[in-house]
Design brief:
By secondary structure, the chain is α+β, with helices and mostly antiparallel strands. Helix content is 29%, strand content 22%. It has a three-stranded antiparallel β-sheet with strand order 2-1-3.
């Protein structure tokens, strides 16, 4: 069984929850930031980005997600 990596914590006022890339690609549409800012660590957004998935421990490849974003 392959893990759908949890890439960070989405912070929305009182609501804080773990989020996958798939969920992020939907949730950013209702936020005030574009998706490329969520994927770039230089920007401060309402997402706490993880280096490793807390479920399986695998390193999260942020560069790969940026390339997938280009395809969206």
């Amino acid at each position: 069984m392959q893990c759908e990596h949890q890439i960070g914590e989405w912070i929305d006022y009182d609501n804080v929850h773990l989020i996958t890339f798939k969920e992020l690609s939907e949730l950013y549409k209702t936020s005030c930031y574009p998706l490329n800012k969520y994927l770039d660590r230089r920007y401060s957004v309402n997402l706490i980005r993880f280096n490793y998935c807390p479920i399986c421990g695998e390193k999260i490849d942020w560069d790969k997600m940026k390339k997938q974003y280009d395809d969206i």
